[in-house]
Amino acid sequence: QVQLVESGGGVVQAGGSLRLSCAHSGNTEGPYNAGWYRRAPGQEREWVAQAIDGGAINYIDSVKGRFIISRDDASRTVTLQMNSLRLEDTGRYFCRIWGLRDWWGRGTQVTVSS
Predict the structure, then answer these.
(1) Cα-atom radius of gyration of the chain, to the nearest Å?
(2) Number of C-alpha atoms within 13 angstroms, CB side, residue 27?
(3) Is residue 104 helix, strand or coil?
């Protein structure tokens, strides 16, 4: 069973930065992809950034140039560096690992204040 634990959320002023981390443990049963998703208040969950097995990196348009996703398979961590945060980045951020199966963390709250 793979377990994911997110950390690094908090309250930050607009224009500030936060760094989210996701530590995962357990057997992924092979190669896996990693990503960050978020759910803003009253909205559906959306994907934010993906680090695909093999090296491809994808970002939703609204975070391009501001967020950076990285993965370290040796330490089994996935990070999301968030810069120039905006009010609309507020939400609960979830880490996801998927391959043969699909695993999610419980999320960490990010609140951007004016």
Answers:
(1) 13
(2) 1
(3) strand
8 A C-beta contact, residue 53 and residue 99: yes
Strand-pair category, 10-13 with 108-113: parallel
Cβ-Cβ contacts under 8 Å for 42 (sequence gap 6 or more): none
Cα 96 to the center of its chain, rounded Å: 7
Q: What is the pLDDT of residues 50-89, one digit of tens each?
A: 999 999 999 999 999 999 999 999 999 999 999 999 999 9
Quote the CA–CA distance of 82 and 63 in Å, as a whole number.
8
Strand segments (E) across the chain: 3-7, 10-13, 18-25, 33-39, 45-51, 57-59, 67-72, 77-82, 91-98, 102-104, 108-113
Widest Cα–Cα separation across the chain: 44
Beta bridge partners of 71: 78
Q: What Cα–Cα distance (Å) separates residue 79 from each residue in 6, 82, 114?
A: 9, 10, 25
